[in-house]
Design a protein that fits this description.
Layout: E1 2-12, E2 15-25, H1 28-34, E3 45-54, E4 57-67
Parallel strand pairs: 2-4
Antiparallel strand pairs: 1-2, 3-4
């Protein structure tokens, strides 16, 4: 299993906010991908979007199906 965060910037005029997604990838692909994912790398993920609750906070999660 490989877990990694992905940040998405959203801009509205002068305002900017960052959304964070907790991504998880399972199986042999996770082992192969781990060597290519480094901090600051641009990545696109596709998969199933959901949320989880932890200590009163809501987290956005993606079970990754595709990575480019």
């Amino acid at each position: 299993m490989a877990g990694f965060p992905v940040a998405v910037e959203e801009r509205t005029g002068q305002d900017k906010r960052t959304l964070w997604f907790d991504c998880s990838l399972w199986g042999k692909r996770s082992e192969a991908l781990a060597q290519y994912l480094t901090k600051g790398s641009r990545v696109t993920v596709a998969g199933d979007l959901s949320t989880r609750e932890h200590e009163g906070k809501t987290y956005l999660t993606v079970r990754v199906a595709e990575v480019t």
